[in-house]
TrEMBL record:
The lineage of its organism: Bacteria, Bacillati, Bacillota, Bacilli, Bacillales. The keyword Lipid metabolism applies. GO terms for biological process: fatty acid biosynthetic process. Catalyzes the NADPH-dependent reduction of beta-ketoacyl-ACP substrates to beta-hydroxyacyl-ACP products, the first reductive step in the elongation cycle of fatty acid biosynthesis. This is 3-oxoacyl-[acyl-carrier-protein] reductase. CDD domains: BKR_SDR_c.
Length: 246
């Protein structure tokens, strides 16, 4: 088991990629702190982990709220004593063409996908610097590498995530902390499932493998990057996209 005894915080863990990552990490032996907006939404992920024989707590928190984020770290340290891995997975979309995008649409996506990642990483880094070890993993996107129609806000946030990932890798390496991101292609999750069939077909055709990815494809990447097998990897944006961006 590659994450045996490691303590991992996963944000946005109630469904999609976050849920799949929680399952994979539990199977690899990690002890989990699962975070989402509503505690009751985490109930089924929590049960799944416990049914697998894993250990987990659920924390209700909004990653855009600084006090909530402090609570995530406090509850995790109170339960497990330390924090080895953070997966900054929580994210939203709120699409509109440039000239139609409202300030609310811009702010909502920047708040969760950029500021939320900053909040969680900053508070986790304080604990990890003391420990002199840790792994921070961020959710980027193909959209953070090549843009997308109707996603000005999302592209800006994910581009920002790439920049923060590389900056933090440079800042935190001296403390034994690695920082990487994954840029998923189009993955079959509730975020993508709500899109029209026509758009999904178009997305599928962008992959040279001509298929969408599954949440497990991304979870496998996070597990590798979180593990000691990736001990010499930091500052990387790993594309897992079926060759969408080559
Ligand atoms: P998802 O199915 O929509 O799940 C996102 C989770 O994040 C939900 O449980 C959501 O809670 C939670 N969340 C949203 N805002 C939050 C906040 N402020 N604080 C705490 N939790 C919050 O998304 P996904 O498709 O699995 O995507 C996960 C990550 O991968 C995102 O960062 C996304 O941008 C990135 N990504 C996804 C794809 C894809 O094709 N699916 C591609 C590239 C990148 P609620 O249910 O309460 O809203």
């Amino acid at each position: 088991m590659r994450l045996n005894g490691k303590v991992a915080i996963i944000t946005g863990a109630s469904r999609g990629i976050g849920e799949a990552t929680a399952k994979k990490f539990a199977l690899e032996g990690a002890k989990l702190a699962l975070v989402d907006l509503k505690k009751e939404d985490l109930a089924h992920t929590l049960k799944m982990i416990r049914d697998l024989g894993g250990e987990s707590i659920a924390i209700e928190a909004d990653v855009t709220d600084r006090q909530n984020v402090e609570k995530i770290m406090e509850e995790t340290v109170a339960q497990y004593g330390h924090i080895d891995i953070v997966v900054n997975n929580a994210g939203i979309t709120n699409d509109a063409k440039l000239v139609k995008m409202t300030e609310q649409q811009w702010d909502s996506v920047i708040n969760v996908n950029l500021k939320g990642v900053f909040n969680v990483a900053q508070e986790a880094a304080k604990v990890m610097i003391e420990q002199k070890s840790g792994v921070i993993l961020n959710a980027s996107s193909v959209v953070g590498l090549y843009g997308n129609f109707g996603q000005t806000n999302y592209a800006a946030a994910k581009w920002g995530v790439n920049g923060m990932t590389k900056s933090w890798a440079k800042e935190l390496g001296r403390y034994g902390i690695r920082v990487n991101a994954i840029a998923p292609g189009f993955i079959s999750t509730p975020m993508v499932d709500k899109m029209p069939e026509k758009v999904k077909e178009m997305m599928k055709s962008k992959s040279v493998l001509n298929c969408m990815g599954e949440p497990e494809d991304i979870a496998n990447g996070y597990a590798f990057l979180a593990s000691d097998e990736a001990r010499y990897i930091t500052g990387t944006i790993l594309s897992i996209d079926g060759g969408t961006v080559i």
